[in-house]
Amino acid sequence: AYVEILFSLTERAIARHEVREIEQRHTVDGPRQEVTLDEEDDVVIIYNRVPKTASTSFTNIAYDLCAKNKYHVLHINTTKNNPVMSLQDQVRFVKNVTSWKEMKPGFYHGHISYLDFAKFGVKKKPIYINVIRDPIERLVSYYYFLRFGDDYRPGLRRRKQGDKK
User: Fold this and answer.
1) Is 111 among the residues known to form the active site?
2) pLDDT of residue 157
3) What is the DSSP letter of 155?
4) Number of alpha carbons in the 13 Å side-chain half-sphere of residue 127
5) Domain spanning 37-148 has what CATH number?
6) So where are the chain's domains?
7) Can the keyword Transmembrane helix be found in this entry's annotation (predicted)?
8) CA-to-CA distance for 100 and 42, rounded, in angstroms?
9) Which among 142, 95, 158, 147 has a CA at the least distance from the CA of 122?
10) Per-block average pLDDT, block size 10, for the chain (165 residues)?
11) Angle between helices 87-99 and 2-28 (to 10 degrees)
């Protein structure tokens, strides 16, 4: 228990330090030209992709429509596809999502867990969306995905595929 508490305190201290560094960089670099956004342009949608729920198809639709509807699509790639972020990474993620005005309105997608932006003092929080699927159908889809792969990245060899017989 003591190790967990110590780890948590250390992680928080590092996160606070990183926030201070970002703020200092902003002042050291001098005032940046502030981009102001209309209310409808200051929107970020975070699509938490649940595997085997047509997330690739849904994301492809977002990419197909982004230019026509004037929004940006961004893939959130987490380390080793681990959806849980450390406190340090959470601070960075919140800072990036809320301050990157050039990428708004934005549709961010990836295999990530929900993050409460209000916990970090953010007033204009992103909108989270998910697509869900019947659990049995999802399991059947996953079985065939592991057995035969997919058409999206046919050359990719996944370590869980194993023997296809």
Assistant:
1) yes
2) 63
3) T
4) 10
5) 3.40.50.300
6) 37-148
7) yes
8) 10
9) 95
10) 52 57 53 60 92 92 94 86 83 92 93 91 93 94 83 64 56
11) 30
